[in-house]
């Protein structure tokens, strides 16, 4: 690895869990004079680069916002194209992911998703590697408000008290790993857009102007270096 690309960050200062709002595919396509779906396809390549970098630097969990519960409002041809690309990406990338020690998990509302998407998700989760280096969690038809609501509904239907711990245990991400330490949003927007609302309570937020298809290993390292310089107090006073 090029010396300029080395993280030079102590392991204890690296996040265990990174979550990413992968924004900017459509604008990237527009800038390149291409249909929006070409931008989404380029976004898949960016995700591959990011996964490889996370494995390299020992990040244990990566959650990405692939399709939000609000994305259904987009034109039907774009939504259908995204769904087809999603299935294709799982089918073509799954073997390589497992060779690299990556396990797949999916979170989100499965109701309303096409049958081929559900089948691809099931197949992706069925294969697991023992030497798991990274858990890749893909948020599909996901919304943070939906997540909180479905957790509360589970408790209500079971007649259980709604406590912070009980809700946390029923969040969609509960079986996937710890809450994210670092949330990255590409594309220049300064919001998290209904992504992991509960889980992001104490996450560090990092925003970049870089459009997602252009997001590189160097961009990830810049975010990691920024994260390593922050003091996470979780509501307590500074240690200084």
UniProtKB/TrEMBL annotation:
One of its GO terms (cellular component) is cytosol. Keywords: Magnesium, Metal-binding, Transferase. CDD domains: Cis_IPPS. Substrate binds at residues 24-28, 36, 40, 68-70, 72, 74, 185, 191-193. Gene3D superfamilies: Decaprenyl diphosphate synthase-like. Its cofactor is Mg(2+). Binds 2 magnesium ions per subunit. It comes from the Bacteria. The active site is at residues 23, 71. Catalyzes the condensation of isopentenyl diphosphate (IPP) with allylic pyrophosphates generating different type of terpenoids. Belongs to the UPP synthase family. HAMAP family: ISPT (MF_01139). This is Isoprenyl transferase.
